[in-house]
């Protein structure tokens, strides 16, 4: 029986899912199965999978679309491995990813989440994430959102395509069915504290998150108001983390959608009412609306990469 089940949800993107599958088949770790969940009728993807010709690959074709969260849940329930590794259909892995995660898992507690660093890749820039490890005792919401640079880059984002955890962990806390956005964040905010997960980061970039190809992902688009309602109603954040979340996620989403200035003040009032402002958080609230050039993401990324590199050199000299 396979030790790891690789679960890949997909929908009407056969070329991309084949690239993801090839990156799994190229792994140095060999004891795995691949479970592709086809989220609704999709003859082209079924035909593409038939051409792979590897007995470790099987697929589950859903009669109708269930959305990204439930597609993952279906794949996990249908898997056989002790471990489950998640991979989005438009991302890919480096050949040693699973090997290095299993090695890290040997030193972790039984209930654990083993992730890796990854390359956040756009057509005009690349940045290595995460830039910080979780601190002992740090609330997961504060790791995910308060560890944000002055340039607005989250240092603690754990991308789904890097996750490896015992199958039972995902069964105990499944993804929230029907959630259109923030599926990975929602799961982390619920699962890490409720299961007291031992979160480990393999400090090597072992996956590529193809950020440009987000169009067509199973995750559907939704209004930024849906994200605010989810954050406020779910009560999954500390007050400090909620303020940063509004600043770095909701403010940019509203800005990109062309909302008028009064929306900024509405969100600011919400942040000061329900969140806990800090100097960095207030700067980001302002900068994410008025300063950061979202159409010139590449320049900001290059500056962040330079700052990260400079920081590493200073740290090495100090040692």
CATH class of the largest domain: Alpha Beta
- Under the CATH scheme, the architecture of the largest domain is Alpha-Beta Complex
Order of helices and strands: EHEHEHEEHEEHEHHEHHHHH
Question: How large is the share of residues in beta strands?
Answer: 15-25%
Shape: globular
Q: What's the overall average pLDDT, rounded?
A: 90
CATH topology of the largest domain: Spore Coat Polysaccharide Biosynthesis Protein SpsA, Chain A
* Stretches with pLDDT under 50, minimum 5 residues: 313-319
Q: Order of strands across the biggest sheet? A: 3-2-1-4-8
Number of domains: 2
Number of strands: 9
Helix content: 40-55%
What's the number of helices? 12
Question: What this model shows, in words?
Answer:
Helices cover 45% and strands 18% of the residues. Strands 3-2-1-4-8 form a five-stranded mixed beta sheet. Strands 5-9-6-7 form a four-stranded mixed beta sheet. The protein is built from twelve helices and nine strands. The protein is globular. The longest helix is centred in the last third of the chain and has 22 residues, at 297-318.
